[in-house]
Design a protein that fits this description.
Bound molecules: zinc ion
Radius of gyration: 25 Å
Distance between the termini: 41 Å
Largest sheet: 7 strands, mixed
Length: 379
Amino acid sequence: MRTKKFFLAMFFCNLFFSYAYCAAGAGEEIKIGIILNADSFTAANVSEFYITDSAGKKLKLTKGKVRLSYDGKTISAGGKYSLSLPVEIRGGNNIIFADKKAYRGYITVRAYGKKINVINVLSIEDYTKGVLPKEASASWNMEALKAQAVISRTYTLANLNKHSSQGFDLCSTTHCQVYGGAQEEALSCNTAVVYTKGEVLTYGGKLAQTVFHANCAGHTEDPKYVWGWKDSPAYLSGIKCKYCAGSPHSRWETALDEDFITKKLESAGYKTGSVKSVKIKGKTKAGSAKEIEIKSANGTIVMNAYKFRLAVDAWKIKSVTFESIKKRDGKFVFKGKGWGHKVGLCQWGAKGMGDAGKSYKQILEYYYPKTKLEKTEYK
Ligand SMILES: [Zn+2]
């Protein structure tokens, strides 16, 4: 009996055991740069809102909007009130609008050189609600959305100081994570965030690198072939993915002019001259091209396949898992599978797993094997 219980306990521990994870320095609040290097912006709300400046001056606006303009020295509200930076603006209902977009939490305005940065301060959980619909599709199943919420929160906590020199943590573009504020939240995504509150992926006691992509077409990639990582973590070394076949982008074809490829490579700094042939050189375990050999008027160059894709056109050449590269009527015809760099979680695969009844824990364990799901203890 004892043995049976012990085995059951072992089984669940191995599946995923939730520990408390103390994220170093992570408070519950995060600062997001939403309007950068600006001269002015408009703050607004549907109910009352308050502007407080660093000298303690307080303005109460019952509702409506006010334009804040900066001339490099002083900031004024509505052309009437001069204020001292930094300035804090809060809505009475925990919502504040900046340039017609709604945000949870509040905003601060800070000088940055001769310009201002508008920063949204809110809880990491509320921030994740504003990120999820931009990183995943709100219409996907709940388990795929929960997996994506954990991925996003893990990235957030691992990158808290990315923009500290500018007075905030993360920006709201693809440079960090695309963030749409309360304006773009979706009920399904908010539910996924609430269900997974505080949960992050760790490996060896540190936050995992939760890289993801659209569609791996059967096997995820080791980042050493993509970004030349020297010590790829074991959980990113690549897995066989059974769940994304048949999804959009699993097969694609694009024909590019010889001249187009030549121009793109030259503007990326490769002095190829007129490109005569493009060949795959070596394949990874995931079936992608390791390198590309280009023959041209200037001789032969061999380059990393992923760099080739970025240099030529990452939208047209959706991946470097080429089935063939052939020359036809002065064009190179690329036939390939999947979409993206293929490292980490495959989003269409995660959707497929959720549709097949798998849980978000199973999804995360599948794409990031041997990582742990832990609950963050915010300070
Ligand atoms: Zn896949």
